[in-house]
Write a structure and sequence with these properties.
The protein is an alpha+beta fold and 290 residues long. The chain has two domains: 8-24 and 32-118, no CATH class; 135-235, Chitinase A, domain 3. The chain is 47% helix and 16% strand. It contains nine helices and seven strands. It has helices spanning 8-18, 48-56, 67-90, 97-120, 126-138, 156-167, 172-179, 201-208, 241-268; strands at 21-22, 37-41, 44-47, 144-153, 190-195, 215-221, 224-235. The termini are close together.
């Protein structure tokens, strides 16, 4: 199928050909309604609601036009799209495999988004938010910060040798300056203060299990092998309720949506464990039709 860009002149031709029937009477502001019919094209109607949705989905395009041009431009766009859609149906395009697949996916996304928004926007009680704040205040671990140093080397054997040297009294900072391949090597490997979860997983997990002054390792990450020394820990004070209220509410809404989605998937009984194709299979699927 060949496609071309719809030009202004083509849009004007389509508008002239379509000869739409406009609503006979302009309404007062108090009478505006989404179901108000503006244009009738055959069995199809364009309503004020259709234009409101087109405007909402335009990314602010029509709002950037001069005010007197906005509504006519929106209506022109709606008529153009409907005329082309009717032509596609008349020419059998709507019945092609590609069109049917596209309409299926569009329907899924539209309705899924609307349902997700409806569930996500369900109210969260003030009592729940207060309870979440109490948990946040009590959870010192989530606000923990660590001051650690490390020596980063390429192999586990190198790391084990450094640990042996440390066990016999070698200075950690000096070994870091000599052997560490990381950017903190020149300053003795000191990473300064960092929050819980700020480091890569294995490093973060190791630090959380250490006592102040302890040396641990070797710990492998995607960067190499680490020998770690925990210099100090601290816990930041909890923020005031009003400062975190919005975040807590969002987290509660997200958790509720996750539970809802898990329940819906379980209730559906769907099982995808036996559906296993290579990703490359998608490349061999032909969607267009000549």
């Amino acid at each position: 199928m060949r496609h071309s860009v719809l030009t202004t002149s083509l849009a004007a031709l389509i508008m002239a050909w379509s000869t739409p029937a406009f609503a006979q009477e302009a309404a007062t502001a108090s009478e505006y309604d989404a179901d108000m019919v503006l244009v009738t094209l055959g069995e199809d109607e364009i309503t004020l609601g259709h234009l409101a949705l087109l405007n909402e989905q335009s990314g602010g395009y029509f709002a950037r036009l001069p005010e007197e041009a906005r509504f006519p431009a929106l209506l022109d766009q709606a008529v153009t799209e409907l005329v082309l859609a009717q032509a596609a149906e008349a020419n059998g395009i709507a019945d092609t495999r590609a069109a049917q697949l596209a309409m299926d996916v569009s329907r899924w996304r539209l309705l899924a988004s609307a349902q997700a928004e409806a569930v996500f926007d369900q109210g969260v009680s003030e009592a729940d938010i207060q309870a979440a704040y109490a948990e946040y205040v009590a959870d010192d671990a989530s606000r923990s910060e660590f001051n650690a140093s490390h020596i980063l080397v390429a192999t586990e054997a190198e790391a084990l040798t450094l640990i042996e040297e440390l066990n016999t009294g070698a200075d950690f900072a000096e070994l870091a300056r000599i052997h560490s391949t990381g950017p903190t090597g020149p300053n003795g490997g000191n990473l300064n203060w960092f929050a819980s979860g700020a480091m890569v997983g294995p490093f973060d997990a190791a630090v959380k299990e250490m006592e102040v002054g302890e040396v641990a390792g070797p710990v492998q990450t995607q960067f190499g092998w680490h020998v770690i020394k925990l210099n100090d820990t601290r816990s930041t004070p909890p923020e005031a309720f009003e400062a975190v209220r919005s975040q807590l509410e969002q987290e509660l809404r997200s958790a509720a949506f996750g539970e809802y989605l898990d329940a819906m998937r379980e209730a559906s009984g769907v099982d995808i464990s036996n559906v296993d194709f290579p990703y490359s299979a998608l490349e061999s699927v032909t969607l267009s039709e000549d």
